[in-house]
Amino acid sequence: MKIVRTIEDMQQQVQELKAQNLSIGFVPTMGFLHEGHMSLMEEAKKHNDIVVISIFVNPLQFGPNEDFDSYPRDFERDEKIAEQLGVDVVFYPSVDQMYPKPLSIKMTVTDRTNVLCGRSRPGHFDGVATVLTKLFHIIQPSRAYFGLKDAQQVAVVDGLINDFNFPIELVPVPTVREEDGLAKSSRNVRLTPEERKEAPNIYKTLQVAKEWIADGERDTNKLTDRLFASLETTISGSIDYLEILSYPELGNIDSVDGKIIIAIAVKYSNVRLIDNIIIDVA
Amino acid sequence: MKIVRTIEDMQQQVQELKAQNLSIGFVPTMGFLHEGHMSLMEEAKKHNDIVVISIFVNPLQFGPNEDFDSYPRDFERDEKIAEQLGVDVVFYPSVDQMYPKPLSIKMTVTDRTNVLCGRSRPGHFDGVATVLTKLFHIIQPSRAYFGLKDAQQVAVVDGLINDFNFPIELVPVPTVREEDGLAKSSRNVRLTPEERKEAPNIYKTLQVAKEWIADGERDTNKLTDRLFASLETTISGSIDYLEILSYPELGNIDSVDGKIIIAIAVKYSNVRLIDNIIIDVA
């Protein structure tokens, strides 16, 4: 497994791989790899000749009051995990490599951001779109892998790739779950034992939504109200949002029709959990 | 020579060319090809296995009061010129192909635009950056060719390619000139005989600037004032701007040092002429 720290070296590697017509599967990460990332790497490994991951904590996607400096980093551990999973190249650039000077062009994600988690993170997805544009150009992957746990990110990347015709296939990978249904997250350890016990009710509520829709309910307001009321009684945390939107456009809809997302965020004492399901309603 | 009208067909062509490791030289145009374009195509032909040109009048780079609808179009003539010059593929998409729906991400060129022609064309370079990003992804060229007559456009594309790490070499091509030095332009026919006779003084003024700098003058204010006064006496048109800036950053400079551009725009009765030289001052 190669560790590549400069853009120039990475471009050199990519050029050699491209000359051999090898397909590249790319998993962009901010490091501190967990099972979610592992499922992405495994998926990339299955369908590509070469797997490249990037580890880069991107300052551009952190707000001024967010935790860029304290964001967890452990490159040695990440390196071992990547090696075990058969990753071929780890692109691990410094901030100076990626942003040697201020950018002359600003990317602003104007759609799909003013809902769900985006509402409380202005500018976050602008930073995501910017760094991904750079990484996509440096790595030139055939396929790029993103976890559906952050479905809004997948939706924004879908917009980026389609609107700007990147020659890249976006592969959304299903959320990895605990046996009781709770979406896996490195943040779950911050739950108290009581909170951990009731947290699977978030996913259960999403399953209930699916049933109600299957039973014929189409009114998003009614669904949202009923689901909110139902979830509220089963958890001690406070519901940050419970939204039903079109997918991947993330537009408000009066009636459930076609591809939709049901997404929930719950605030607990020391952690905020998110989960969602995407379903196609005929 | 192939005429390709859809993004899908173009991507298919590109994939086949890439699989054979052929280099692609790309000349983006808005059609109505003239000698400036021809020099770009000839240059592309010399250094690449395949030459692709695009003909697309991009609505996004026209302001609300600009001439998108009346912009000259003559595809049959363009086709003949391209064929004669040995172009391999003409990408000729419709507006619906390029912009099937509103974009979810906006690109804003924040640097290099508030000078020269950009000052009077707000949003113009945002549209240029957007369409080029799309075209670069669709064509995947090894090299992209731009005429230095529009040096500000070259500077913006330099920013786009470098800041976002496009795997593309930007090739700026020198301005093609009449024997008397006047920069060639399809708009020159709109000059009256008297205007045509004096118009070469624009280029002569740029040459004088070069001499003065060679003679040791470094003060940009002094140079600008002297050049303005000198040009003013030799033309009947009005000087729209005469600027000395760093290149490609297009920043204001007190003193001439390193790579700089001297650019002039002159308004005549029915046409506005632009010209520039870029020099490296040791």
TrEMBL record, chains A, B:
<dbReference type="InterPro" id="IPR014729">
    <property type="entry name" value="Rossmann-like_a/b/a_fold"/>
</dbReference>
<dbReference type="GO" id="GO:0016874">
    <property type="term" value="F:ligase activity"/>
</dbReference>
<comment type="function">
    <text>Catalyzes the condensation of pantoate with beta-alanine in an ATP-dependent reaction via a pantoyl-adenylate intermediate.</text>
</comment>
<feature type="binding site">
    <location>
        <position position="61"/>
    </location>
    <ligand>
        <name>beta-alanine</name>
    </ligand>
</feature>
<dbReference type="InterPro" id="IPR042176">
    <property type="entry name" value="Pantoate_ligase_C"/>
</dbReference>
<keyword id="KW-0963">Cytoplasm</keyword>
<feature type="binding site">
    <location>
        <position position="176"/>
    </location>
    <ligand>
        <name>ATP</name>
    </ligand>
</feature>
<feature type="binding site">
    <location>
        <begin position="30"/>
        <end position="37"/>
    </location>
    <ligand>
        <name>ATP</name>
    </ligand>
</feature>
<feature type="binding site">
    <location>
        <position position="153"/>
    </location>
    <ligand>
        <name>(R)-pantoate</name>
    </ligand>
</feature>
<dbReference type="Pfam" id="PF02569">
    <property type="entry name" value="Pantoate_ligase"/>
</dbReference>
<comment type="similarity">
    <text>Belongs to the pantothenate synthetase family.</text>
</comment>
<feature type="active site" description="Proton donor">
    <location>
        <position position="37"/>
    </location>
</feature>
<keyword id="KW-0436">Ligase</keyword>
<feature type="binding site">
    <location>
        <position position="61"/>
    </location>
    <ligand>
        <name>(R)-pantoate</name>
    </ligand>
</feature>
<dbReference type="InterPro" id="IPR004821">
    <property type="entry name" value="Cyt_trans-like"/>
</dbReference>
<comment type="pathway">
    <text>Cofactor biosynthesis; (R)-pantothenate biosynthesis; (R)-pantothenate from (R)-pantoate and beta-alanine: step 1/1.</text>
</comment>
<feature type="binding site">
    <location>
        <begin position="147"/>
        <end position="150"/>
    </location>
    <ligand>
        <name>ATP</name>
    </ligand>
</feature>
<comment type="subunit">
    <text>Homodimer.</text>
</comment>
<dbReference type="InterPro" id="IPR003721">
    <property type="entry name" value="Pantoate_ligase"/>
</dbReference>
<keyword id="KW-0566">Pantothenate biosynthesis</keyword>
<protein>
    <recommendedName>
        <fullName>Pantothenate synthetase</fullName>
        <ecNumber>6.3.2.1</ecNumber>
    </recommendedName>
</protein>
<keyword id="KW-0547">Nucleotide-binding</keyword>
<keyword id="KW-0067">ATP-binding</keyword>
<feature type="binding site">
    <location>
        <begin position="184"/>
        <end position="187"/>
    </location>
    <ligand>
        <name>ATP</name>
    </ligand>
</feature>
